[in-house]
Amino acid sequence: MNYDPFILPFSIGASILILTLILKYGYWIYKLDKDEKIKIVRGFFSIKLFKGIREVFLESLIHRKIFKENALLGYMHMSLAFGWFLLIIGGSLESKIHSHRPFNMPYEPIFFKFFNHNINIYPWADEFKFIMDFLLLLVLSGVVLALIKRVWSRLFGMKKTTKLRIGDRFALISLWLIFPLRFFAESITSGLYNNGGFLTGNAGKVFAYTLPLETLYYPTWWAYSSVLCVFFLALPYSRYMHIFTEAVLIFLRNFGIKSCKVFNAYSKVEVYSCSRCGLCIDKCPLLTSSRIKDTQAVYFLQSVRNKNVKEEKAFDCLLCGRCQEFCPVGIGLNNIRVSQRLDFAPGLQNFNFINPQQKEKATVAYFAGCMTHLTPTIKIAMEEIFKKAGTDYTFIDKDGGICCGRPLMVSGEIMKAHKLIEKNHNLIKESGAKTLVTSCPICLKSFKEDYKLNIEIIHHSQFLLRLVNERKISLNKSEIKAVYHDPCELGRGCGVYEEPRQLLQKTLSLQRIKNEKESSMCCGNSIGGLHVNHVQREAITMDATAALLKYKPELIVTSCPLCKKTFAKNPETGVKDIAEVVVASMRN
Amino acid sequence: MKNFGYTINKDRQIDFDKTDKRISEYVREHEPSFNICIACGTCTATCSSGNFTELSLRKIITLVKRGDTKGIQAEISKCMLCGKCFLACPRGVNTRNVIIKISQALEKYNI
Question: Which of A:370-389 have CB within 8 Å of B?
Fold first, then answer.
């Protein structure tokens, strides 16, 4: 067995790391609900396991989603993660083949070149030398890019990169040192014993002219081992905890565990999975428009992890969901934000006054929602369409209804919200409807997520498209140039992107715009946030409107009464809801 | 004495010894837009809960500012936080947060 005291820091660090990880993950999985544990066991013995492995390979190692966003940033993450992974695999194979034993000490592959000076006598020595040097070069290129990113983040398509804490600094600096030190240690060894590949071999020859190799030889191996130790010890307390936790998260997600609005063990795994890549920062309208620089998802998750969430930060997010859409790890950022609001929410409730009755029965129940009552042209349009199409419908909240409960829910008042949900649930059930149509995407999201209605729940844009396809109503095509604004709750919230577009293409000349669908901008008046003030909201509205007006449309169309009300302030063009557009083209 | 149909109204002066300014100070500190309310009543006119019951944000804000906090808790807990008042407010008062802050202050000072 090869042994030298300098392997001790590495071995101690690695053992402590493995023990810490086993304890942490074991505790988190133990803390999951019973149903979720059953899901894990079932998922483990099914195809879901292989789906998980595939996703771990694509996301944790290759970083496919970051590649899609920015190729250079993707390459940086891939070269570090995948390169290191292959170095471990390659090194392990190399040392095992050379020692002719299937098992050896875990440090032997890492310090292979130290223990084996004359490697040319082993099989495939040249191939391994080349591959290992190539992989080292790959990782080193990633380290160089990471250094450049700290100084020049714009090159990576990012206006801002993440801020660091002291624990992270330790881990980050040791991580940056690991591979340069490995390079130096192997090059110096090669300079003395000529056992390097194209990279370390040639570097060794150069070093032999300029450096005192004999004196540097032993200390560099010590430094390499010590830096690995520092990194391993700092890892569980730094953002690099994501390296392993992301894989755990991917498996749990594939086994069917979902994020929820109450902070649980799964949320904890999510929080620790954040790699702080910072892609969410530039997506946040609170940064780009309102200039709030410290509330973006990456910072918020950091504060959740450090257990110092500020009330202000918990409440100023508008829950537009842009960060969540672009999160390469797929963390349920909106739910984590809401989960942190529960502690601050006041618990008073007095909803005994609400006692509405549903008398009519019909196949379609129409729920306009509070915001639609604030923009009554939408409900008037819908009623006209229902009548013309001969739909058997009942207007659940005709005389002003109860709120769907989502505003309370996302403000952290879950118990209060459930009172309203119960009342609305009974109303809708009593109507005997098979389809629930709503004009407000906020209500739609709430009905889909928080109610257990067991009937079809659709937005009015989907319902109107169905009426057109079934030839219950017919539309006239006009040449009005229009742009469509995707509401946050309808698009990113419920995934309805295509139906409104298909419907609008039948009546208008619809322009394609830059920030559409998943990357649509928030209108600024979302009920998701409580803390952001009027001026900060106005800034978001101005930017969102300007982005739409850039295409010089004659009409802005949206399918959310809240967005409509917000955009209506702009004097340059008309703003219409999709139902109003349909009604207008029916009249012609 | 002969009743001529006149009554004497109760004195409507604000008694500074009895006012409780803690809530209004708490809200002012945490939601400054509370200050710019002109009590126009648009919030009350558009209120979803106000459709079913006599919930008036205008009245609540006025009472909180006066320091007359008795009975506010029963009123404010009727709010569904739907946000119509917030969209309708001509002054840009962050009404939803005002309501949350009043509720928090009520809990904090145990009123």
Answer: 370-371, 373-374
